[in-house]
Amino acid sequence: MPSFDEVLKEAGEFGRYQKRVFFLLSQTGITFSSLFASVVFLGQAPDNFWCRIPGAAELSERCGWTLEEERNFTVLPLHLGNESFSGECERLDVTWDTSVSCTSPLARYGNRSTGNLPLATCHDNWVYEQPHSSIISEYDLVCGNAWMLDLSQAILNLGFLTGAFTLGYAADRYGRILIYLLSCLGVGICGIIVAFAPNFTVFLIFRFLQGVFGKATWMTCYVIVTEIVGSDQRIVGIVIQIFFTLGILILPGIAYLIPTWQGIQLAISLPNFLFLLYYWVVPESPRWLLTRKKGEKALKIMRNIAKHNGKFLSPHYSEITISNEEVSNPSFLDLVRTPQMRRSTLILMYAWFTSALIYQGLVMRLGIIGGNLYLDFFISGAVELPAAFLIIVTIDRIGRRLPFATSNIVASVACLITAFLPEDVPWLKTTVATLGRLSITIAFEVVYLVNSELYPTTLRNFGVSLCSSLCDLGGIIAPFLLFRLAAIWLELPLIIFSILAAVCGFLVLLLPETKGIPLPETVEDVEQLRSHFGKCGKTRKHRDTNSYI
């Protein structure tokens, strides 16, 4: 009986059929990255707002004030007496008298300086010039409530983390495409509820659920793509991430054209319903079917792939070799039970954590200073495009480990140099920091590919999901690490980033090289990866009755 990789080679490793599936599933990267970065535009700080005084509605009605006139009479007088006062988080704690003059409601205080009038902290009743432009103005996430905006992003990352564990496990047990489709439905429904959430609590609950389903769509589509192509074509795992960057580039355009946060939320959520049409055009992963003892279904899909690729499978292919290994309930213990699996799992978890922490830390630090938010966000996303092209050019020529290690080392050096460059050459600091951003982006994208290549089919989706969950943990920690350490010394976070990246650069050299090696089907195949390297580091092929490695 032929192995799966032998049948795939005959059916076409990256023919017209795989290209179509690849293109369709790649669109998921656009919607996922938009969800990932949406808080930048959903949570835009309002341009102008102030704390409305008690009874302001009655005063305005009695005096016929517009909102602008109300602000001029109730906020600006205090600002004239105390220039540090903006009227956003504090208000005058006085009795307003309009019986004398609507144009001088503070006349009863005579010549007393407004800077000496008593103040009270504002707890609610803020007024915004654009009340529905962002979730900040929608739910009053200002002043003492400003931390809730950070909470909304932390909740989303917690959703990513939960989705990696729960739905990653479900995809290995119940099928890739089933979980993908259910997750697309979940993202769309939760996204609509988030857009019309009546209060911030409902907003957080369904933003969390949208994160759960969103992470499942991204990880599952990635695994499907890498499982239906040959070993020489798994570079598609890098190319698909260009679509993630494409989503980053499209998002500011959407936000620029749509003035309300609800509109932006719907624009990034509704396209997920279109992915439900994939039920008729994207097949279940034949590799996964084989691990579930469904060889006939897998062979039927392979014949369909061959037909669309203009190929023809030999008529004696009545059955494909089925893996003797089946893991019905994958767990973390399955990922660390054997030496090679244990080493790979621990290193990959650290690599995911480090890449996410440094990536998000550098984005927040670099920011894009001042200027137009939409243009600045677009430029910051464009920095990531060269990363994918550099990987495509190098990874199939020199392998995975060297670019993986080098990108981490370069990021480490760039962070260290940036920390000690003088402040009077900001262009140089920005350039070197951008080099660090580019390098850690390369590391981030390579870890996706290497992660999927170092796990057997029976554990691949669960392994990728679990390891990548450390990415979400890094994303949660990054802002706290950055801002707390920067309060001690502005450049201290860069020193920490440099150390983390350097350690990661050396650790990944302990991983086996997977260039040109078919995806492992069983844990035994993974353990045999260590035997693929001679003293010169060259790979050699091994063949047994169950797989062609």
Short summary:
By secondary structure, the chain is mostly helical. Helices cover 63% and strands 2% of the residues. Strands 1-4 form a two-stranded antiparallel ribbon. A two-stranded antiparallel sheet has the order 2-3.
CATH T-level topology of the largest domain: Growth Hormone, Chain: A
Helix count equals 24
> Termini, distance in Å?
16 Å
Structurally, the number of domains stands at: 2
* Strand composition percent: under 5%
Order the strands across the largest sheet as they lie in space.
1-4
Task: Report the CATH architecture of the largest domain.
Answer: Up-down Bundle
Contiguous low-pLDDT stretches (5 residues minimum) are: 366-370, 531-549
At the first level of CATH, the class of the largest domain is Mainly Alpha
H-E order: HHHEHHHEEEHHHHHHHHHHHHHHHHHH
Based on secondary structure, the structural category is mainly alpha
The number of E-state strands comes to 4
How would you describe the shape?
Answer: globular
Mean pLDDT: 79
Tell me the CATH superfamily of the largest domain: MFS general substrate transporter like domains
- Cα Rg: 28 Å
Query: What portion of residues is helical?
Result: 55-70%
Q: Describe the largest sheet.
A: 2 strands, antiparallel
InterPro entries: MFS_dom (IPR020846), MFS_sugar_transport-like (IPR005828), MFS_trans_sf (IPR036259), Orgcat_transp/SVOP (IPR004749), Sugar_transporter_CS (IPR005829)
Family: Belongs to the major facilitator (TC 2.A.1) superfamily. Organic cation transporter (TC 2.A.1.19) family.
Catalytic activity: tyramine(in) = tyramine(out); serotonin(out) = serotonin(in); dopamine(out) = dopamine(in); (R)-noradrenaline(out) = (R)-noradrenaline(in)
GO molecular function, one term: quaternary ammonium group transmembrane transporter activity
